[in-house]
Design a protein that fits this description.
Blueprint (H helix, E strand, L loop, with lengths): L21 E2 L6 E2 L4 E4 L5 E3 L3 E3 L5 E3 L3 E11 L5 E9 L1
Parallel strand pairs: 4-8
Antiparallel strand pairs: 1-3, 2-7, 3-6, 5-6, 7-8
């Protein structure tokens, strides 16, 4: 007989921490210059007037104001247009 108890399987116990993506400031909320409005993977939501997108696709406020979200059609690489949400600061 075995002198040591069975250890069990420990192959699938690795996981990474969550990336904390999502909308950080919603429409109508006040925002200051440089504050993060949205953290996202890929450019699902597009920056508009008063905002800019950093290299990891995070949308920041370029000026003080109020956050607004509106739907717009953007031209895709293929030439088609698709509805996307545009983030602006007024």
């Amino acid at each position: 007989m075995s002198k040591v108890k069975a250890g069990g399987s420990s192959r699938n116990n690795r996981d990474s921490a969550g990336r904390r993506l999502g909308v950080k400031l919603f429409g109508g909320e006040p925002v200051k210059t440089g504050q993060i409005i949205i953290r996202q993977a890929g450019s699902n939501k597009r920056p508009g007037v008063g905002t800019f997108m950093s290299r990891d696709f995070t949308i920041h406020a370029a000026k003080d104001g109020v956050v607004r979200f509106n739907k717009r059609r953007f031209k895709l690489f293929s030439g088609k247009t698709a509805p996307r949400t545009e983030v602006t600061v007024e």
